[in-house]
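Researcher: Please predict.
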Amino acid sequence: MVNLGLLPGFDGNYKARDVALTFNDCGNFRDDWIYLKTIKSPCVFTKGIKAIELPIRHGEGKFFAPKEVIKRLFTDHHVVFQYATPDNKPARGKFPYNPNGSLRDIAGICDPTGHVLGLMPHPEGYNHFTNHPDWTRKKEDLKRRGLPLPEEGLGIKIFRNAVRYVEKKLL
């Protein structure tokens, strides 16, 4: 989406290439689970999500842009997700919490309308409870506390938010 110019979409310009994704600072492909902190934005995909854990699978996931573009992304509320620690504090560029060296821990951005979202982690990779590497531990914990087992993974919440938004606007 950034290569096509769909993001960030400054001033409604969906053809400019203002940001880029480049090689991970660690120099290799990463296949892991990371924590994201949600940032206040107009993004319709993040309603009710303050933090989320999602899988990553990439060798070129470092978010990069000139300083003035990064500043504008934050000022105009285009930043949607930042890499974080397990306790939802900023990653501050520290590996492995920021797994690729993304500037200012940026993991996802949206356009000005909030209708276009691009993020490096893969919400589709957490579509079922059993996709999480600790699912058996979590299952046992929920059973011991007498709580029901969720069927969906947290990644589905992002897509469900988009569907609800469209339903609300069209119906």
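Model: The beta strands are 20-22, 30-38, 51-58, 62-64, 79-84, 106-110, 117-119.
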